[in-house]
C-alpha cells in the first residue's frame, strides 16, 4: 500500500468522480483508477461503488478513509517538526527542463554564497507532469509554464514569476542557418523534434500558443533534451526553446546551434510557481523559494 493510493482514493470520493479527480490532480484517468484498483486488490476489499453517476465509498472504504486521515495528519506533523529543526535538508522540486539551464544553477550558487545547507532533488517533465507531482505531494514546489486550466485546481496555488518567448533552435545543416529569422509558415514545414507530448494535446502548451491549425511537421519525439539538441546540431531538425531560460545553453554558447525568432509571430509564455494547498511548505522549502525568486528578479532586471 502506498500513500499516493490513499490520496487518490480520497480525491475520488471528494469529487465523487474518478475522471474529475484525475483532472484536478493532473494525472490520467486510467492511472488514477488503476492505483485505486490496485489498492483494492492489495486489501482484498471493494473501496468504491462505481455507477454511471459517479463513485461513492463503500462502508469499508469510509472506514479506511477515516483511518487515512491519521496518516496525512502525521505526515504534516513530521514536515512541521523537520521545518523547525534548523536550516538543513532537501527540497523536492519538479521543473520544466529549461529552468535547469540557467535559473536553477544560479540559485544553487546563491544558496552556497549564503551558506545555506540546502540540497535540491529535481525531477524534470512537462508542465502538466510538474503540476501533478506537486498536487500529489511527490514534490514540494513546481516550476512550469502556465497552461489552460491550471488555476482551476483547488489543490494548487499558482504564482507567476516571469515572461519568456519561444525561439527556434536550428543547426548548421538547416537551410536557415544563415538567416536572421524565419516566418511561421516556413517554420511549420521544417522537420521538428518534439519534446515528449508537444503538439499532442488539444489545448495548452505550444499547441495552444500556435493554434490548432499551425501544427509543425513533427518527425521525432524524445524525452531527452540533450539528445534533442544533439540531433539539431547534426542534421536539419528544428525545435522551440525559451529564449531567456535557455540563453546559457552549451550548444548555443559554443555555436553548435543557433536561435532565431519567428518574424511574424510572438510566441510568449508565462513561467510560474505552483505549491500544494494540501501540503504545507517547510522552512527549507521557503528558504529555497526566497532565494529562487530573488535570483529571478535580479536576472529579469538584467535582461531589460
Assigned CATH superfamily of the largest domain: Periplasmic binding protein-like II
- Unreliable runs: none
Number of helices: 11
Gross geometry: globular
Strand content: 15-25%
> What would CATH call the class of the largest domain?
Alpha Beta
**Helical coverage, percent range:** 40-55%
- Give the beta-strand count: 11
Mean pLDDT, to the nearest integer, reads: 86
Counting helices, strands and paired strands, the structural category is alpha/beta
Indicate how many domains the architecture comprises. 3
Radius of gyration: 22 Å
Looking at the structure, the CATH topology of the largest domain is: D-Maltodextrin-Binding Protein, domain 2
Order of helices and strands: HHHEEHEHEHEEHEHEHEHEEH
Q: How far apart, in Å, are the first and last alpha carbons? A: 51 Å
Q: What summary fits the major beta sheet?
A: 7 strands, mixed
Question: What would you say the CATH architecture of the largest domain is?
Answer: 3-Layer(aba) Sandwich
Notes on the structure:
The protein is an alpha/beta fold and 304 residues long. The protein has 11 helices and 11 strands. The protein has helices spanning 3-15, 18-24, 29-43, 59-83, 103-113, 127-135, 184-188, 205-210, 225-234, 250-253, 283-303; strands at 48-51, 54-57, 88-95, 117-124, 141-145, 156-170, 191-195, 217-222, 238-242, 258-260, 268-276. A hairpin with a 2-residue loop joins strand 1 and strand 2 (54-57). Helix 5 (103-113) packs across helix 11. The mean pLDDT is 86.
